[in-house]
Amino acid sequence: MAEVEAELLLRAPESDIQPTLDPMRALMHLLGDPQSTFASVHVAGTNGKTSVTRMVEQLLLTMGLRTGRFTSPHLVSLLERIALDGRPASPDRLVAAWAEVAPLLPLVEERDSRPLTYFELVTALAFVAFADAPVSVAAVEVGLGGVWDATNVVDAPVAVVTPVSLDHQEWLGHDLATIASQKAGIVKPGAFAVLAAQEPAAGEVLLAHAADVGATVAREGVDFGIVDRRVAVGGQLVWLRGMSGIYDEVLLPLHGPHQARNAACALAAVEAFLGGQGLDVDLVREAFLAVTSPGRLEVLRRSPTVLVDAAHNPAGARALAEAVDEAFSFDRLVGVVGVLDDKDALGVLAALEPVLSEVVLTRSSSPRAVPPEELARLAEEVFDADRVHTEPDMASALERAVRAAEEGGDLTGAGVLVTGSVTVAGEARELLRPRA
Q1: pLDDT digits over 124-164, tens only?
Q2: pLDDT tier at 435 (50, 70, 90 boundaries)?
């Protein structure tokens, strides 16, 4: 497995979008089109994709179906991205998939005159692993955008688009309408499109595309949504309106209004996958009770409480701040924040400021990480200068944040929130998870 990962890391990074699916289609064809051997639910959007994908998978798994799940990026291990029946694929499984893929790469790359990227190859490994398992249905998360994303070789009968906001503008466009047009590309002719509540500019584009391809549409707030929700120990109790009726008193062990909306989208997607058929409410309760979403407002430690969240854009940071304010009662919350260089760092910091007593700026090991000193200059535009600190790495940042949180004396009201990028969340999780 280490050799496979080393080969993958020689490739162009997954943020390097190539505006063509031809190499990926050619590789799939040479492999016997493994992506056509299973049904799929395809999930795009700016925020919430991973959580929705995991929820869809859990609903299908609880129904007794053999499932695959593909998400990205990973927090710690590549194996997180590819799951079979709810569990990460084994190294042996992915090594076997690589043995099928690798001999075909020269044929594809000579014809296209460019190497396939890291993300294209990881996607290919997932589809081969799903076909070899075999799975009945896969929940597949888009990596970036939609139209040109490597996952878009699937012809999914159900496509989900979570809320669209500004992110990855250098690749997807600088306004909501343009970004939405990229996301809309996963909605195929005759498919069922499940659309989360959208800003008008994005919603109009998504609806127009659905009409152009003859897709059936279900919209959050119109055809499905949240009836009621209440904060509960370890998460929230939700009443969901699906397309086929009400699902009452569903315990969702995730925090925040955004996760309740994600649950509504996932439920509607599975109803659509079943042809509009309703699900047994007890099955829905069982499935959502088992849902996990690592790195999404996840509690890693107590006394003081250490939370980690992969929010990496202003919309995600606003949802995170709202969830923290609703679900926790911190007297003192210290942030550990690191951001990558293609993100709106000022927007992220401004969204987090209302819930943070202090902030420790740091960087992950990613070569794209913004230096802490640069982040500090931005932070001082929204925080008082005495609330802003810097540390060179994650370990020292966590140590300083925990000390600062403990200064109040009452550990039950103290907390640390680690966020700003997936890599920051992953490194914090790797440092603290053994003690969780």
Answers
A1: 999 999 999 999 999 999 998 899 999 999 999 999 999 99
A2: very low
Structure tokens at 52: 């929705």
Name the packing angle between helices 176-183 and 200-212 (round to 10°). Answer: 40
Q: Tell how strand 158-161 and strand 192-195 pair up.
A: parallel
**Domain 298-435, CATH homologous superfamily name and number:** Mur ligase, C-terminal domain (3.90.190.20)
CATH number assigned to the domain with residue range 2-289, chosen from the 4 options 3.90.960.10, 3.10.20.600, 2.60.120.580, 3.40.1190.10: 3.40.1190.10
Rg, Å, the chain Cα set? 21
Question: Is the predicted pLDDT of residue 308 greater than 70, yes or no?
Answer: yes
Q: Which stretch of DSSP H or E encloses residue 319?
A: helix 314-327
- The position carrying tokens 């009409």 is 211
* Contact between 268 and 242 (Cβ < 8 Å): yes
Tell me the C-alpha distance between 390 and 362, whole Å.
6
Q: Is the full-model pTM beyond 0.85?
A: yes
For 427, residues 6+ apart whose C-beta sits below 8 A from its C-beta are: 364, 365, 394
Instruction: Report domain extents, the chain.
Output: 2-289, 298-435
